[in-house]
Amino acid sequence: MKELLNKQSVLILLGTGGVGKTTVAAALGLAAADAGLDTALITIDPSRRLRDALGLRKPGLRPNKLSRARLAAAGLTPAAQLSAVMLDVRAMWDDLVEHLNGARAVRQRILANSFYRRFTEQFPGAETYAALEQLYRLHQDRLFDTLIVDTPPAAHALEFLDAPERLTRLLRTRGVHWLFKPPMAAAGLAARFAGRAARLVAEQLERFAGLAALSQAADFFSTAAQMIGELEERFDRVNRLLHAPCTKFILVTTAEPQRLAHARRLIEELKARRLRLGAIVINRFADERTCSALAEGCTQNPLHLREIASLRELIFEPPLLTAGMRALVEYLDDYREQVQERMAEIARFARDLPSEVNLALAPESPSKVNNLRGLFDMAGRLTAKHGRRL
Fold first, then answer.
1. Average pLDDT in the 338-353 region?
2. Based on the number of CB atoms within 10 Å of its own CB, is 133 exposed (0-12), middle (13-18) or buried (19 or more)?
3. Where are the domains of the chain?
4. Residues 6 or more apart in contact with residue 364 via CB below 8 angstroms
């Protein structure tokens, strides 16, 4: 994992909701900063404790540098440089519109349009594109050595990858271009959706706007028509950044069999799209001793699990255990069996990975990763040299 942290690198965290992407992104940000890289972390929806740890009081557009005192308290070197931003999605879209070419009156009309407001707040991919737009700007500015992006919560990791293409496709759809004509009377609006392509667009718009808002939609697209080419070009540039050699994707998952199966499918999908997978993080796996044993190549029966197995012999040895002690031994033995099954599954998963893909494990320790010290400890585990020896 450490080799992914270098100058001009872009790391994008992927994964379904609830697997700990934000925590892993923050830990990697600390690892990059500790390695002497001026690092920027872009996050969307961090927990309250993580916001406090990173000093993110409110959403914004520009990363703010963490103080040396805050970083030193976490154990980083005095020269470490880490900046972070909790992205303000609405402000990012407004800023994008403000910087488009065209008359100021046109831009102001777009910003005041109620459909535009709903579009930027509710359309699938609008939040994701805002994060990509911020990434693109920071990459163009070249003010940071390393950029790390925590992707928005999603039911499917590929939603992030699909966002630029989805938005571009919407803008290019023939049915949308019907709307680019000067607004018609409300009575004639229905006729504009008579065509098959236009109906497809209407269905997309109705999902979050409702038919009553279609006149506002028509006005929005009509007003924005002269800027569509520029928006498409910008979407394309963002998409090219996702495919650039400097950009690596890091998949965050957990050890459940269905999650690992999903990770396998995602690996194939990234390969098909010619996107570069740099690492996989299996988060919240067992305890620290088990993670260490597995990372060091012990996939069968590490010592501490053998010690748990030996406890079962005590159940039938005099003096006999109390009911409470017997229940505790049985609980520990069930835990041992479950962990050994997961260890074997992860070992099989690791053997199938391409040789260039890093694999790291992070233990289940929810009470320790909501502050910078705990995140820095996690960073050390993620970047350990032995993390790919499974």
1. 84
2. buried
3. 7-281, 285-361
4. 284, 285, 286, 287
How high does pLDDT run on average in the chain?
80
At 29 the pLDDT is: 94
Residue 169 has pLDDT above 80, yes or no: no
How far, in Å, CA of 70 to CA of 95, rounded?
A: 31
State which fold the 7-281 domain adopts. Rossmann fold (3.40.50)
Predicted local confidence at residue 82, as pLDDT: 96
Tokens of 159: 């939603």
- What was the pLDDT predicted at 185? 43
Report, as an integer, the average pLDDT of 261-280: 91
3 state SS for the chain: CHHHCCCCEEEEEECCCCCCHHHHHHHHHHHHHHCCCCEEEEECCCCHHHHHHHCCCCCECCCEECCHHHHHHCCCCCCCCEEEEEECHHHHHHHHHHCCCCCHHHHHHHHHCHHHHHHHHHCCCHHHHHHHHHHHHHHHHCCCCEEEEECCCCCCCHHHHHHHHHHHHHHHCHHHHHHCCCCCCHHHHHHHCCCHHHHHHHHHHHHHCCHHHHHHHHHHHHHHHHHHHHHHHHHHHHHHHHCCCCEEEEEEECCCHHHHHHHHHHHHHHHHCCCCEEEEEECCCCCHHHHHHHHCCCCCCCHHHHHHHHHHHHHHCCCCCCHHHHHHHHHHHHHHHHHHHHHHHHHHHHHCCCCCCEEEECCCCCCCCCCHHHHHHHHHHHCCHHHHCC
Q: Which of 57-71, 289-303, 330-344 holds the top average pLDDT? A: 57-71
Bridge-based pairing state of the strands 64-65 and 82-86: antiparallel
Average pLDDT for residues 191-206, to the nearest whole number? 56
Per-residue tokens: 16:
């379904």
